[in-house]
Design a protein that fits this description.
The complex is a heterodimer. Chain A is an alpha/beta fold. In chain A, 37% of the residues lie in helices and 24% in strands. Chain A has eight helices and twelve strands. Chain A has helices spanning 17-23, 27-32, 52-57, 59-70, 101-113, 140-152, 158-164, 172-184, and strands spanning 2-5, 13-14, 38-43, 49-50, 91-97, 117-121, 124-125, 128-129, 131-136, 189-193, 196-200, 205-208. Chain A has a six-stranded mixed β-sheet with strand order 1-3-5-6-9-12. A two-stranded parallel ribbon of chain A has the order 2-4. Chain B has eight helices and seven strands, in the order E-H-E-H-H-E-H-H-E-E-H-H-H-E-E. Chain B has a five-stranded antiparallel β-sheet with strand order 3-4-5-7-6, sandwiched between helices. A two-stranded parallel sheet of chain B has the order 1-2. Chain B is globular and about 45 Å long. Chain A binds chain B through residues 9, 11, 15-19, 21-22, 51-53, 56, 60-61, 64, 68, 81-82, 85-86, 113-114, and chain B through 92, 95-96, 101, 126, 129-130, 132-133, 136-137, 141-142, 177, 201-207, 209.
């Protein structure tokens, strides 16, 4: 896991995209230096307050880069003038960590507005994240699918959920679609297992909202 | 005559028509001084030496000197008068250091000392800082300049004004760098899209800040918010019972200037 500390000086108030971009310096190099999919934890330790611009240019930027990769977006042929444009990054998961109350609220607010989910790591040991808090927005049926996945405590294919939760009265295709949606939103990982996708969580437990 | 944000257009129009009106100008508000300095600095219809008279005005002189690249060292000194500040933005580092922190801290102190309520001072400083950041994010995008822009504030008893001004690429060129808005041809439309519809040059990063809500909140303090760029102007004037954003077309001006005035 790549853990990136955002606080670069003694100022606990971090406002603006420019400051966020300065605080994010080095994280791209760190990701690119590692083979395969990378799990990223953005550490807000010591930061007391941020604003929407800071959130957009830090954890939301990283999340969008991960989502772009999963959506299959390719890089433009001509290099952009903007060094902070959204680009496809091979990420397994993105976590925000060590959030103060104010920072958590600002992240939650921003991600709700953008209708995106964000995972706050609440506990972890080494590379293994235990408990997370879901901030931002996730459709109700996807929250239910995530709950089902967590409760089974194992990697699953859609058929496992279909069999385990018949009371939900949704078909195999719908389970497939919901898992795929969770994957696109960077909530779960997946790997090909024969002709199926096998989905896995990068954490053990989840709680919702603030 | 005092020139402020409500009649600055009349002054500039008179200057463009070659009328010798500068001797009638007794005073310039902060926002008016900054807009005038930006227009004179790089105006396409720049009059011949019209600014000598205005240089007698301290606010204009300070803005003019900074736009001209005057005073190679940082002209803002932490021990300057605390109720106002001119601060040049020269790259991202300008908004990172101790001096910038001092500007924000002194703005907050000045607001409290001049009768603004606790809480308002933090919100105002936050809005000021966020908008100043836009100079770095948008005004020089893809270009290199020695001076990115100027930020300034002035606090008087129960009155505050601040200005974020640059002579960079302007709203139209910035927004047009997003392929979604590549066909845009007017700064007025660009300002309308940016301020009201949260349009942004950034691709796939969600909506821009928009600022419509923030501008309305600021204008509600018996205030005025005005954004000038190219041939466009976006303004919100806070009058009792009516706060309506408006856009219009005017004489062209370089870069972008945002001015805010509030009274309690």
């Amino acid at each position: 896991m790549t853990t990136h500390s955002l606080l670069r000086d003694k100022n606990p108030i971090r406002f603006g995209a420019t400051r966020a971009q300065a605080d994010m310096q080095g994280v791209l190099e760190s990701i690119r230096s590692q083979p395969g999919l990378v799990q990223v934890m953005l550490d807000y330790k010591g930061i007391e307050a941020v604003n929407g611009s800071y959130v957009r240019a830090s954890v939301a930027w990283m999340t969008r880069c991960g989502i772009a990769a999963r959506a299959g977006e390719t890089q433009p042929q001509t290099p952009s003038l903007d060094p902070w444009e959204i680009r496809s990054l091979p990420l397994r998961a993105v976590f925000a960590a060590n959030l103060s109350g104010e920072v958590r609220e600002e992240i939650d607010l921003y991600f709700k507005k953008e209708r995106l989910p964000c995972l706050e790591a609440m506990s972890w040991k080494g590379d293994q994240v235990g408990r997370v808090r879901l901030l931002g927005h996730l459709d109700q049926q996807l929250v239910r699918a995530l709950d089902c996945l967590v409760s089974l405590k194992k990697d699953v294919v859609a058929e496992d959920l279909w069999k385990a939760f018949p009371d939900d009265r949704i078909g195999l295709t719908a389970w497939n679609n919901r898992l795929s949606e969770l994957y696109q939103r960077h909530m779960v990982s997946r790997a090909k297992d024969g002709k199926f996708w096998r989905y896995s969580l990068e954490f053990k437990e989840v709680e919702y909202g603030i | 005559m005092r020139i402020d944000l409500k009649n600055i257009d009349n002054l500039v129009n008179a200057l463009r028509q070659g009328r010798a009106v500068e001797s009638k100008v007794e005073d310039l508000s902060l926002g008016a001084a900054m807009e005038l300095a930006a227009w004179l600095f790089d105006g396409t219809t720049k009059p011949q030496n019209p600014h000598q008279q205005f240089l007698a005005n301290r606010l204009f002189a300070e803005a003019w000197r900074l736009f001209e690249g005057g005073r190679p060292n940082n002209p803002w000194r932490p021990w300057d008068a605390v109720d106002e500040a001119f601060f040049p933005v020269r790259g991202a580092d300008s908004l990172e250091g101790e001096d910038w922190g001092q500007v924000l801290q002194r703005l907050k102190s000045a607001l409290l000392r001049n009768g603004f309520p606790d809480g308002f001072h933090k919100g105002m400083a936050s809005a000021f800082a966020d908008m100043a950041d836009n100079i770095i994010q948008h005004s020089v995008f893809g270009t290199v300049r020695e001076l990115n822009g100027i930020v300034a504030y002035q606090v008087r008893p129960k009155e505050v004004s601040f200005t974020i001004a640059d002579v960079g690429i302007g709203a139209l060129q910035s927004l047009s760098s997003n392929p979604e808005y590549a066909g845009l041809s007017s700064s007025r439309k660009a300002l309308d899209l940016i301020c009201r519809n949260k349009a942004s040059r950034r691709v796939n990063q969600g909506a821009g800040q928009g600022y419509n809500d923030l501008f309305i909140a600021l204008a509600s303090y018996n205030g005025l918010v005005r954004v000038r760029s190219g041939d466009g102007v976006f303004s919100i004037e806070g009058e009792i019972g009516r706060i309506e954003p408006q856009t219009a077309s005017l004489h062209p001006t370089p870069g972008l200037q945002l001015s805010v005035e509030c009274r309690i």
